[in-house]
Amino acid sequence: ADTHFTLKTTLLKLQEVLPHYFLRIQKSYIVNLHQLKSFDAEEVVVHNKTLPIGKSYNEALFEKLKIVKG
Known about the structure:
Elements: H1 11-17, E1 22-26, E2 29-32, E3 36-39, E4 43-46, E5 49-52, H2 55-64
Antiparallel strand pairs: 1-2, 3-4, 4-5
């Protein structure tokens, strides 16, 4: 079930209080890494939704997932 929340805070502040398995993948998105269905260098799929990975967040995602890009 999709749960939606409306918050009056910045994503940066939200990111600071979320557990370690949440990761910012783009300036507008933070995702729960436990919910990733698939991903590549440009996008992730979470709950059948495809979300873009920002260029500046790409390396952090792969590092967090312990994947070395070739």
